[in-house]
Each structure stands twice: as structure tokens, then as C-alpha cells.
Design brief:
By secondary structure, the chain is an alpha+beta fold. The protein has 26 helices and 5 strands.
Length: about 525
């Protein structure tokens, strides 16, 4: 009698697809279909985790498939984090339930230290903090600590091994340590960073300097204290990095960095010049409905070129510099980036202004920027980026000054606002402009069967009206982005500047075609996604 095989789920199928690609040295085949699956199947985080634990050695025997499940787990967690950013309590609860489930499996002996590191890495990449319970469970596992509950006795040998594995690259060392220690208690991570500063190894001290941009303020403060003890042994490159990072930390943490810099300079350590670098091209994406915008920077790298990226969303959320690649490969990558979202070539002042603005938003939240931003600054030959918000009124006035006076006359202005949903230049931008939060979802859910036009008018006079400032800023930033295009492109930045001003001036949103379009799209998206 033939025993029936268990049915394969979509999660299993996607994990196998990713595993086959990774095994052949290709990147994971992420697609719109996969994103839709992750959006509609959030509870599959449990299946993905179970699959990874089942197949990853030493418990399992198929590392490639285990990695496939881990990639899928990270993608699912990231989609859940998007929903928590929008304020959905069910997403936050599901993340908490998932971490509690992992803790239960750890305590039952079903998950080893290696697997927990992978889970911590998935949480880190998804920008989800590890729960205190998960960190406590991590601390109890063997191999995380020695019998005395401290770091390895031969710290020099341990750090030497890490540095060798990363080719001595401090960015790679710290990036891998931050990710692999994500589920560890903050005390252990602070001890690790401090030990690197005090290990007596120049390369370890260079890595410890970069821990000043650790996501956790306790780690940042601990390593600042340790660096103060060895400030005289820092290199000129370390000092340059300290000066660059000083303004990228929350304001109340800058004095600690200043103290390290003063001690180093007092001991005769000079500040190194930025290494040779530059930017040959900058392209920026449109601002989507969640206010996300990405930048790609192309820099020379000998006979090859290097692409760096900066991602912003209410702050600097990610930054990295890639490896040198051929010109042909770089051109293909840039062309591919433009297939998913509209991109425009922008100026260096536009980049600097945007980075400074999002630096301000990051530090105001008492957060540090991603470590990769320093690597990007070094790749492009230096950057004097300081937290400075874009002044809405000043930026808007600058655009309005260039708008023809005839467009600002009452009748012409009313026509521009009424027809602003017909602007062809927004065809590829506006599809991502919609509201997605529990309050709006509740209103849409409670209006089942109601005429969409009437429901849109209600949203414009209630929920969306309360979000007027956010949409005014999104429209203004889009106008500034389009203003970067060459004059012959004749993009609709003038019309958008007038829409942004109308929103800022408190104009009735029902008179603005673009806002009505956003309201109607919100209704359609929430109903089709079943978020209610």
C-alpha cells in the first residue's frame, strides 16, 4: 500500500524556488507574485520558520532549502513590519506571537543556537526588534557564552578570527556582528562592542568605532565609553569617521563622541582626509504613498564602477555600497531599477538636501542612521551631511516663484486643481498614493455597498483631511523631484506645486482632483486587499 505524501503548500513551493536559485549562485527570485503572497498570507511565518528549522543543519540535511525558507521568513516578516508601521495592531500581535513561538521551541530544545542566530538575522533585516523574552532565551543557549556567562576568554583570538573571515573590512565585521547578535541581550552586545575597542587590535578598534551607529543606544553609549579609554591609540581614519558620525547620532549622545575626538586630537592623532572618490551619476525614485524614496549613486572604481544606494522613509532607513562591477552590468542594473518605479537623474544638491532632511528625522526619533551611510560617504569621496529639515514653506515658495502668474489666477487655479487627477506625468507615480491605516480601513469597511464617489467625499472631509499636511509634503517633494528633470521634459511640477499650496492653505479637498483620486484608490485598494 502506497503511503500518501503530504501536500506541498505555496510556502514550500516558494522556498524550493528560492533554494534552487541560491544553489546556482543567483539572487532570490523575488517577484510581484511573491509579494502578493506574503501580503495575503502573514501567518505563513510559522510555516517558513518550521521549514528552516527542519532543513537547516545540524538538525536537517538540506542547507540550501533551509536558506530558502529563511529568505521567505524574512520577506514575510518585512511585510508584517510594513503593516505595523501603518498602525495595524493585528500585525504587531502576529510578530509578538511568532517570537513567543520561537522562545517556546528554544526552551523545548527544538531550536539550537545556530538557528536562533538565523531568526535574529531575519528580524534584523526586517527592522523588527527582538523581544526581551527572545533575548533572554538566546542568553541561555550554549555557545553564546562560556561557563562563566561572559565573553570568550581568548577575546583576541576570537576577534582575530572574525576579522580574518571578513577580510579585515570593518564595515563587514560590524554589519555581520550586528545582524548575528540581534537576538542577544543588549548587555552582551554592549560587552562585545566594548571588548573590540579594548582588545589591543587596531582593526578591532576600527570596527568598534562603527558600533557608534548600532541601532541600540545602550550599545552606542557603552562603546563610546570604551573608545574614550583608548582614544590615543585611534588612527587618523578612525578620527575622520568619528567626526563624520558625530552629527548622525541623537543630539544628547554627541557629547560622548566629542570627548573621544578631543582625547584623540590631544594625543596628536590627526584627522585623515577623505579618500579619493566621486559621483558620476545620481538617480532618485519617485516618492511613493508611504513617503519612501530611493537613491542610486554611481561612482568610479578603477576600470569598473560601483553603485551605492540610500533609502529614505521618514528618516534614513537603509544605505549600502556594492562591489565594483562592469559598466555594462551597472547600466543594466540602473535600467532594471527603472522598471519597477519611476526614476529621474538628480543633482548633487538635491541628494544632499534630501539626506540632510532625513538625517534630521532620524535623529529627532533618537535613532542612529544605518552603518552603510558612512560607507556610502566614503565611497563618494566625502560628504558633509548634517541634520537639517527641508523648510516646507521656503521650498514651496521657491517653486511657486517659478510658476507662471497666469496659472495662479483664480479661474485657472481652480481648473488646475480640478483636473490634477489627469496629469499624465503621475500615471506611473500615483498608483502607490493611497491611505492604509486602521482608521481608514474601519471607515471603508463600515460603508459596504455605499456609492464610492460619496464615500470618497466623506473620506476627503474627514480622515484624509486630518492627513492634509502629510499629503501636502508628499506632493511638494514630488514637485521638487520633477523639478530636477531637464526643462525640455516639461514635467508637471508647476501643477503639483499649486496642489501642495492649496493643501497647505486649507483648500477643500473635494475641489482637488488628485486628492479625490487618492480617496477612490484608497477605497479600491482596501476592499481588494481585504484589510477590513
Amino acid at each position: 500500500m502506497v503511503r500518501a505524501q503530504p501536500k506541498s503548500s505555496s510556502t514550500d513551493d516558494y522556498a524550493r524556488l528560492i533554494a534552487r536559485a541560491v544553489a546556482k549562485g543567483r539572487p532570490p527570485p523575488f517577484s510581484d507574485d511573491l509579494d502578493r503572497y506574503c501580503e495575503s498570507s502573514p501567518r505563513e511565518i510559522f510555516t517558513a520558520f518550521a521549514g528552516a528549522a527542519r532543513h537547516m543543519p545540524p538538525a536537517g540535511k538540506d542547507e540550501a532549502l533551509g536558506i530558502g525558507y529563511l529568505f521567505l521568513l524574512q520577506r514575510l516578516l518585512e511585510h508584517l513590519r510594513y503593516r505595523t508601521d501603518c498602525g495595524y495592531a493585528d500585525a504587531a500581535k502576529l510578530i509578538a506571537d511568532f517570537q513567543a513561538d520561537v522562545v517556546t521551541r528554544v526552551e523545548a530544545g527544538q531550536v539550537d543556537a545556530r538557528m536562533l542566530v538565523f531568526v535574529g538575522g531575519a528580524l534584523h533585516q526586517s527592522k523588527i526588534p527582538a523581544s526581551p523574552e527572545l533575548a533572554a532565551a538566546s542568553a541561555k543557549l550554549p555557545n553564546n557564552e562560556d561557563e562563566g556567562g561572559s565573553l570568550p576568554t581568548d577575546i583576541r583570538a576570537a576577534l582575530g578570527g572574525i576579522l580574518e573571515a571578513c577580510g579585515g573590512d570593518p564595515f563587514m565585521v560590524v554589519g555581520s556582528l550586528i545582524e548575528s547578535s540581534h537576538a542577544m541581550p543588549v548587555e552582551n552586545r554592549s560587552s562585545l562592542a566594548g571588548a573590540m575597542a579594548l582588545a589591543g587590535i587596531p582593526e578591532a578598534r576600527a570596527a568598534a568605532v562603527l558600533f557608534l551607529l548600532d541601532p541600540d543606544s545602550a550599545v552606542r553609549r557603552a562603546v563610546a565609553g570604551s573608545l574614550g579609554q583608548v582614544a590615543a591609540s585611534l588612527t587618523s581614519t578612525d578620527v575622520r569617521r568619528l567626526i563624520a558620525m558625530r552629527n548622525w547620532r541623537p543630539e544628547d549622545e554627541r557629547a560622548e563622541v566629542d570627548a573621544v575626538i578631543r582625547k584623540a586630537r590631544g594625543a596628536g592623532v590627526d584627522c585623515a582626509q577623505w579618500q579619493a572618490g566621486g559621483i558620476e551619476a545620481i538617480v532618485a525614485s519617485a516618492i511613493d504613498g508611504s513617503t519612501t524614496q530611493g537613491f542610486l549613486l554611481v561612482s568610479p572604481a578603477g576600470r569598473k564602477k560601483r553603485v551605492s544606494s540610500v533609502l529614505t522613509k521618514g528618516g534614513i532607513t537603509d544605505a549600502l555600497s556594492g562591489e565594483p562591477e562592469s559598466v555594462r552590468r551597472i547600466e543594466a542594473n540602473l535600467a532594471g531599477a527603472g522598471t519597477n518605479t519611476p526614476m529621474l537623474a538628480v543633482s548633487r544638491p538635491y541628494l544632499d538636501r534630501a539626506v540632510a532632511h532625513h538625517l534630521a528625522l532620524t535623529t529627532e526619533k533618537r535613532e542612529a542612521v544605518p552603518l552603510g551611510l558612512l560607507q556610502v560617504a566614503e565611497t563618494i569621496g566625502g560628504a558633509d551631511w548634517r541634520p537639517t529639515r527641508i523648510a516646507f514653506g521656503e521650498a514651496l515658495a521657491g517653486l511657486i516663484a517659478d510658476v507662471p502668474k497666469t496659472m495662479c489666477e483664480p479661474a485657472a487655479l481652480a481648473s488646475v486643481l480640478r483636473k490634477s487627477d489627469e496629469l499624465a506625468d503621475l500615471d506611473a507615480v500615483a498608483p502607490s498614493w493611497f491611505e492604509d491605516d486602521p482608521e481608514v480601513a474601519q471607515v471603508v469597511d463600515g460603508a459596504r455597498g455605499r456609492d464610492h464617489a460619496k464615500l470618497a467625499s466623506y473620506l476627503l472631509q474627514s480622515v484624509l483631511a486630518r492627513h492634509r499636511d502629510r499629503w501636502a509634503e508628499t506632493v511638494l517633494r514630488t514637485a521638487l523631484w520633477m523639478h530636477e528633470a531637464p526643462p525640455e521634459a516639461d514635467l508637471c511640477w508647476r501643477e503639483l506645486a499649486l496642489v501642495a499650496k492649496a493643501l497647505a492653505d486649507g483648500r477643500d479637498m473635494t475641489e482637488i482632483g488628485l486628492m479625490r483620486d487618492i480617496a477612490l484608490r484608497t477605497i479600491a485598494v482596501l476592499k481588494s486587499a481585504g484589510r477590513m
